Amino acid sequence: MIDCVDVFCGLGGLTHGLAKGGVRVSTGIDLDPECRFPYEANNEAKFLEMDVAKVSGDQLRSLWGKGRHTLLAGCAPCQPFSTYGRQKGRNPTSKGQWDLVLDFGRLIREAQPQLITMENVPQLVNHNVFTELLKSLHGYHVCWEIIDCVDLGVPQTRKRLVLLASRLGPVKLGIPRTGDLDRKATVREAVSSLLPLRAGESDPEDPLHSACKLSDLNLRRVRASRPGGTWRDWDKSLLAKCHRKISGETYPSVYGRMEWDEPAPTITTQCFGYGNGRFGHPEQDRAITLREAALLQTFPRSYRFLPQGAKVRYSVLGRLIGNAVPVRIGEFVAKNLLKHVAKIDREAGMNAKTS
Would you say the C-alpha torsion 16, 18, 24, 28 has a positive or negative sign? Predict the structure, then answer.
């Protein structure tokens, strides 16, 4: 059994995937109190509201259960203007913008877990902080790759850095390639079963499946948009002022519709707004809903984001869902780690018999 503590756990995407894949997660740690309900309502783990920078290695060791192997998991927020960083009062434009990654490295050195996994933005590898993190992994076997989430069955074009490390022996990422899959996961597969909505309408049975209102102008714009197209397809009378300027012509990735039979674009914290990216529904004249965003992030339909009767706050849930680790990534990591420890345990058993 692998026992895991998930730091920077958010609302539980990585934890949920790890658990579905067979890893026992005892605790999730995050600074954001908004994460407590969804984390604990959907996972057999406790939520510890705490600044990870203030967690010690001794505290971390006390949180692991009695499993044979210990795992530290985490996705340290790396966006220069991340909400987590702002809550801690850090200057997003300073050299300290990567401090959360260094906190993760400090916990590795202090707690010395047998196994480590980290998911993060691909740009991390281009910064010195990644080299510093790798120094924290002295004594570990390490592998990492930039993964296209489509290859893991996630219905969105999201690239992520995934790292595994083990003190037990060589570890590797067995990544399926798109060509190995029967078919790509698509928007249709993820969201087509949901109740059709117009802009401003809500599903009475699901408060998260609620479409934001559109202005008359944006309603005309979405009706003029074709799946996979851009605002360049519109009549000039519909163009925003910024797009009429030469400087705006190079930014086509807004005011677009998704395509039914393709993956969605990367889900962001503002994905519920039609003008914030290519987040128009493929067929219905509106932006996607928070429920659709969660499904595209591979959260199960049954995942509870709010207590019964609580008000849906788009900015809060949009941030939590957009920043979440897709559940399928957690499942993928769990599969690789369980395969790894099974091999190590098998080899240890064979050596014991021959000694």
Answer: negative
Strand 24-30 to 46-49 pairing? parallel
DSSP state letters, 190-221: HHTTSPP--TT-EETTEEEEEPPP--HHHHHH
In the chain, domain spans: 2-179+325-354, 187-322
Distance between CA atoms of 204 and 309, rounded to whole angstroms? 12
Is pLDDT of 68 > 60? yes
pLDDT score recorded for residue 82: 41
Specify the CATH architecture of the domain 2-179+325-354.
3-Layer(aba) Sandwich (3.40)
Catalytic member of 4, 75, 78, 149: 78
Active site residue 78: yes
Q: Which whole-number Å values give the CA distances from 39 to 49, 65, 251, 331, in the listed order?
A: 11, 19, 36, 17
For the segment(s) 187-322, the CATH number from 3.90.120.10, 3.40.50.720, 3.30.360.10, 3.40.50.2300 is 3.90.120.10
With tokens 């047998």, the residue in question is 114
Q: What does the pLDDT average to over 166-195? A: 85
How many angstroms from the chain centroid is the CA of residue 217? 33
Lowest mean pLDDT among 60-64, 93-97, 171-175: 93-97
